[in-house]
Amino acid sequence: MAKKKATGRRHPLASVTLLLVGLLATGGVYALFTSSATAETNASQEALIEEGGKLFAANCASCHGMALQGTSQAPSLIGVGAASVDFQVGTGRMPMAYTGPQAEVKPPQFTEDQIAALAAYVASRAPGPAIPDESLLQGDGDAAIGAELFRINCAMCHNVAGAGGALTEGKYAPHLSDIEPAYVYEAMITGPQNMPVFNDHNISPENKANIITYLKFLDDNPEPGGLGLGNIGPVSEGLFIWIFGLGAIVAITVWLTAKSN
């Protein structure tokens, strides 16, 4: 009697076919959601840039030009990047309250969302330094390395304790106490006003984070060596000691001499 053929057995390619179908389905769904998310992100970014353009036209173009080309009253903003806008507008330096040797720090005139929109608009016109990543702003680097770098690159203007100092023609280097880490980093990569630019070849991102760590250490440990005399610098402090210290010694000497007579 002939045997019946076995039924219910899978074809050798069935498993491979099912695997391919599953991969294609998964890939299709992923591509669909990714495309939707990308499209939504692009639309959101375009809306942000459009809002920034309106804010720029209403508040900045009269000085910097409609095409960011600059005028006789203000410099070009082509290529300054989002970091420069975030620094200048976030610290209230821009818009300037009045014309002077340099822009003064004051309360910001725009909200955080408006500043982000302005930064996105300027960055969209030409490439430039971007707003730094949060991982570089935590103040968890090496304070000792940061202190050495600060003394070499920054202390001649900002004072070794970050107390600031006078420059020429009525300009000055501002103090660096209780400054937002993002603004410190942005100042280094954009070189606002009289400050030089420290790009990643001059000072690496890691070492910029170390400098921020040193400044945070100064904020958390004011006057670690005792009376700071206002952090006016070694020359001024030395002159103070020379005049008042030596004067006190002379006064005591005269008093002891007069008493003995």
TrEMBL record:
<keyword id="KW-0408">Iron</keyword>
<keyword id="KW-0812">Transmembrane</keyword>
<comment type="subunit">
    <text>The cytochrome bc1 complex is composed of a cytochrome b (QcrB), the Rieske iron-sulfur protein (QcrA) and a diheme cytochrome c (QcrC) subunit.</text>
</comment>
<feature type="domain" description="Cytochrome c">
    <location>
        <begin position="47"/>
        <end position="126"/>
    </location>
</feature>
<dbReference type="InterPro" id="IPR050597">
    <property type="entry name" value="Cytochrome_c_Oxidase_Subunit"/>
</dbReference>
<keyword id="KW-0679">Respiratory chain</keyword>
<protein>
    <recommendedName>
        <fullName>Cytochrome bc1 complex cytochrome c subunit</fullName>
        <ecNumber>7.1.1.8</ecNumber>
    </recommendedName>
</protein>
<keyword id="KW-0479">Metal-binding</keyword>
<feature type="domain" description="Cytochrome c">
    <location>
        <begin position="141"/>
        <end position="219"/>
    </location>
</feature>
<keyword id="KW-0472">Membrane</keyword>
<keyword id="KW-0249">Electron transport</keyword>
<dbReference type="InterPro" id="IPR036909">
    <property type="entry name" value="Cyt_c-like_dom_sf"/>
</dbReference>
<dbReference type="Pfam" id="PF13442">
    <property type="entry name" value="Cytochrome_CBB3"/>
</dbReference>
<keyword id="KW-1003">Cell membrane</keyword>
<keyword id="KW-0349">Heme</keyword>
<dbReference type="InterPro" id="IPR009056">
    <property type="entry name" value="Cyt_c-like_dom"/>
</dbReference>
<keyword id="KW-0677">Repeat</keyword>
<keyword id="KW-1133">Transmembrane helix</keyword>
<feature type="transmembrane region" description="Helical">
    <location>
        <begin position="239"/>
        <end position="258"/>
    </location>
</feature>
<dbReference type="Pfam" id="PF00034">
    <property type="entry name" value="Cytochrom_C"/>
</dbReference>
<keyword id="KW-1278">Translocase</keyword>
<keyword id="KW-0813">Transport</keyword>
<dbReference type="InterPro" id="IPR009152">
    <property type="entry name" value="bc1_cytC-su"/>
</dbReference>
